[in-house]
Amino acid sequence: MPQEYLNTGYCHVAFDDDAQAVVIEWFGAPKSEEFRNACMRVIDALKDHNTSKVLTDNSRAVIFKREDQQWLNEVWLPEAEKAGYRASATVIKKDPFVRFAVDNIVKGRDKDKFLNKRFESRDEALNWLKSLSV
After folding, report:
1. Number of structural domains in the chain
2. Which residues fall within 8 angstroms of residue 121, CB to CB, at 6 or more apart?
3. Calpha distance 100→2 (Å, rounded)
C-alpha cells in the first residue's frame, strides 16, 4: 500500500515502495498555491524515504502557469536537490503544448546531476525508475 502525502481533486502524491520513488499525478490545472503545496509534499516524501527518484504523471494535466514553471525551477528544484532528488520519469500525453511545457521545465537542469526521461505509460516509467541505482 503506497504511503499517501496528498490526495485532492487536482493532485495525488504518494510513495511507491516497489520503485522506491515518489509519484505525483496531476489532474487538470491547479491554482498556484495548490501546485506549490503539492510540489512541497514531494520534497517531504523524498526526505521521509531517503530516495532520489520522482515519477511525474502529467497524462491528465494541462499546462501549468508560466509563473509556476519558473517557481518550480528557481525555488523548488534547489530544495528538491537538497532533499536528494536525482532522477525524474515523466509520463505525458501526446498533446504538443503539454510536451513543450514539460520540455521547458527540464531543459535547464544539469544533465550531470539529473537523469530525466519521458514516457507514454506509467508502467514504463516505473520500470525505468526501478532499474536505476541513484
Report:
1. 1
2. 91
3. 30
